[in-house]
Amino acid sequence: MDPVRNPYAPGAGQRPPELAGRDTELDGFDVVLERIARGRPERSLVLIGLRGVGKTVLLNALRSAAVRRRWGTGKLEARPDTPLRRPLAAALHQAVRELSPANKEDADHVLGILKSFAMKEPAPATTTRGKSTLRDRWQPGIDAPAVPGRADSGDIEIDLVELFTDIAGVAAGAGRGIAVFIDEMQDLMPDDVSALCAACHELGQQGLPLVVVGAGLPHVPAVLSASKSYSERLFRYARIDRLDPEAAAQALRTPAQEEGADFTEEALTAMYEVTAGYPYFIQAYGKVAWDVAPRSPITADDVRVAAPESESELAVGFFGSRYERATPAEREYLRAMAEVTADLPPGVSMGDAGVATSEIAVLLGRKPQSLSPARDSLIKKGLIYSGERGRIAFTVPHFGRYLRRQAAD
Question: Would you identify the CATH topology of the domain 245-322?
Fold first, then answer.
């Protein structure tokens, strides 16, 4: 098979050639946009799922849907220990520019408010000599004079409520809306989560055309609920999981057929067995299977030949890169998790693979409290998550299997 024509794309956040199995989410978001455009009440949306299920890809597809309706859109990726104010200001700046309100005076005014909001982020401590750093003198690239007295109190919750209200008002005046897309939502700082919930609450009460669309790991609902008890009424959670066999076959077969190739039914069955329907694995195994197959159609034998190379690549790029971020104590904890989950069925889905932290402590012969630092650090690094008190799970599909194979080598 010609490797140049290989259609599969196993990249981080890279859209696959066929976005299979996500029609329900895409159609549902079209309804959300239409309802908001008609002044109907609608909740913001949060996509939740493990690594490798295509949350970022779907987030980008939803943004494209908003762009097609000529909404203003902006996107940011939350990062641990990084305040929301500046990246959100940059995303909203782009959204207002895309909106291109007919009334330039209103647009300049709201950009001035946005500039004041961005500049209110607390400056870092000065140097020991008392001189300000370059970061202290940072100015947002917003071509409008700052408007004082609005969204610049320094309290992120007060400021974000005012900012969202003003920007949504300009969007309403233009007859359109604003959509803000936030990836890795679990990494938002606690004060920023609280502010985001408060702002979405205000938007809902006023019926303003601004919607937040987030994506994150399965414990995002718990993060939001810990901040505001009413958060479950502010957001609609869409669980993004592995594909069923039919959708997985579509993700493989449609791109191949567009290149004049195909898979046998036995090959599709074999692919589902090794990938368990996870979109990233489908792309990774599909790419190697195409390259090793001598001719079309790709057979089950080709899949078996491709599997070791696919697993080797995943071991380095998908699994290994994450494992290398762990300290020795954290790796011990991860390996213990892998052993505890060894008897679970291979096809368990998101959240179903959670194990009790007490079982890990028993396996390691340690008191649970002594393992808390390693567990908390792994959660912060995004390698594991806790969907409920006393239970944890891997954020990466098949990570336990990878660790067990590594231990056996």
Answer: Helicase, Ruva Protein; domain 3 (1.10.8)
* Residue 289 in tokens: 């299977």
Which of 22, 35, 46, 68 shows the shortest CA–CA distance to 212? 46
Provide CATH 1.10.10.10 ranges for the chain: 327-408
Q: Is residue 297 reached through a cis peptide bond, with omega within 30 degrees of 0 on the bond before it?
A: yes
For the stretch 359-386, pLDDT in tens is 999 999 999 899 999 999 999 899 999 8
Strands 355-356 and 72-77: unpaired
Q: Hey, what amino acid is at 214?
A: G
Domain 23-122+139-239 has CATH 3.40.50.300: yes
Q: Strands of 240-287 (E only): list them.
A: none
Q: What is the mean pLDDT of residues 25-54?
A: 93
How far does Cα 159 stand from its chain's mean position? 25
Strand partners, 216: 48
State pLDDT tens for residues 317-375.
899 989 999 999 999 999 999 998 876 665 554 445 578 899 999 999 999 899 999 99
Assigned CATH topology for domain 327-408: Arc Repressor Mutant, subunit A (1.10.10)
Residues 138-153, mean pLDDT to the nearest whole number: 83
Whether the Cβ atoms of residue 340 and residue 360 lie closer than 8 Å to each other: yes
Q: Which amino acid is at 307?
A: A
Which helix (H) or strand (E) element contains residue 75?
strand 72-77
127 — pLDDT class (breaks 50, 70, 90): very low
